[in-house]
Design a protein that fits this description.
Elements: H1 11-15, H2 18-26, H3 30-39, H4 46-53, H5 69-74, H6 99-102, E1 105-106, E2 111-114, E3 120-121, E4 133-137, E5 142-147, E6 158-164, H7 170-189, E7 201-204, E8 217-218, E9 220-221, E10 225-226, E11 235-241, H8 246-266, H9 297-306, H10 308-311, H11 320-327, H12 338-345, H13 347-369
Parallel strand pairs: 2-8
Antiparallel strand pairs: 1-6, 2-3, 4-5, 6-11, 7-11, 9-10
């Protein structure tokens, strides 16, 4: 695209969501490319490939389905060729290529251990003593909703999940909203009526309440990985009434859980690579000269990530002219803008390390915070 605005976005890039932003960094990751090269030489699991295509839009197609390791390693629902310039479209607008990255833990009294690996279930003596729905989970999102509790009539129909607050909670909360609406449809189809007086529940998982989470062993969180120690202090139980106003309850959850995340972060309860703030705008020069409106810092970082080896090939600070050639820092034939010289001066100390971190795993932060190329 020819433009006088550096790091400008196309119409499609402006409309793209966090999944697309994450994929753009994954596809230029050396680790992902090497992993894909290995698995692409393994024969396909045809049943898995068919199951994946059941979620894709009619004109979308992928060629690889060897195993589910892409979900554990990269948070991606299926192995995609890095040659895919954009994510293949999905049939269900609520589905996500990075669902496993953002999914909260559903309340399930059979679930014993939360360790980031395939979940371990155990039959609970006495069964389940209240009405409960459970949504089947696919690599892309929620499937069929099933009733697993007895048919008793209560005034509320809560959906309860555990949210990992070692990372920004926004992505998980958006998935909770999708789950709540699936529950709501089930109960409304079952003849239940809406209600107005509802309170959002946000509790620690080991609060001693009757929630199934108090009997689970949390041995994993997104910021610390799997551990033999309990990570329960990094999680919160969230319950909302699916017969109430879901949008208002979700907004309340978002506010409360953002505060919990910030409190956990401030208390330094874990080591984190997540930035305190993300630079959405190209930084101005010290004298206040700014990049033109429409310049996307995330697009700038993607260009830096894509050309990282060339930018730092000599180990020396590249010139402004080098960056004009490699990442289209600004249009050729004009005087160096002050903001561009400032960008060049920080390329090795600020922008290149952040760009490399994004393609080497920090892209997950974009999903957790729901950051897009057009976020301001």
């Amino acid at each position: 695209m020819t433009t006088t605005i550096p790091f400008a976005l196309t119409d499609d890039e402006r409309k793209a969501g966090p999944d697309e932003a994450m994929w753009q960094f994954v596809r230029v990751s050396d680790e992902y490319r090497k992993a894909f090269q290995v698995v692409s030489g393994i024969p396909n699991n045809l049943d898995m490939l068919e199951a994946i295509h059941a979620h894709l839009d009619d004109d979308a197609h992928i060629e690889y389905a060897q195993d589910a390791s892409c979900r554990q390693r990269f948070g991606l629902a299926a192995w995609l060729d890095p040659a895919h310039k954009t994510l293949p479209r999905l049939k269900n607008e609520d589905d996500s290529w990075f669902f496993s990255l953002k999914r909260p833990v559903q309340e399930d009294r059979r679930l014993r251990i939360v360790d980031g690996l395939p979940l371990e279930f155990v039959v609970t003596p006495g069964g389940i003593n209240f009405p409960m729905l459970l949504a089947d989970e696919t690599p892309f999102g929620y499937g069929r909703v099933r009733r697993i509790g007895p048919d008793r009539r209560y005034s509320s129909r809560p959906v309860c999940v555990a949210i990992d607050c070692s990372v920004p909670p926004d992505g998980q909360i958006s998935v909770l909203e999708i789950l709540a609406n699936k529950h709501r449809k089930y109960w409304m189809d079952d003849g239940m009526k809406t209600t107005h007086d509802v309170d959002v529940v946000v509790e620690e998982v080991d609060s001693g309440s009757d929630f199934a989470f108090s009997r689970m062993h949390f041995k994993w969180a997104r910021s610390v990985g799997a551990t033999k120690y309990s990570t329960a202090h990094l999680w919160r139980v969230v319950c909302i009434d699916t017969l109430g106003a879901i949008g208002n309850q979700i907004a309340d959850c978002r506010k409360k859980l953002r505060a919990v995340y910030q409190e956990i972060r401030d208390e330094k309860l874990f080591e984190t690579a997540w930035p305190e703030r993300f630079p959405h705008r190209v930084p101005p020069s010290p004298n206040g000269n700014r990049a033109p409106d429409g310049s996307s810092m995330l697009m700038a970082l993607l260009k830096v990530a894509t050309n990282a080896d060339e930018i730092n090939s000599s180990g020396k600070l590249p010139t402004v002219g080098d960056l004009v050639e490699k990442i289209d820092l600004y249009p050729k034939g004009i005087a160096h803008p002050a903001w561009a010289e400032h960008f060049q001066g920080e390329i090795l100390t600020q922008h290149l390390p952040l760009a490399r971190a994004l393609k080497n795993g920090l892209y997950r932060w974009l999903g957790h915070t729901e950051t897009t190329f057009s976020t301001r």
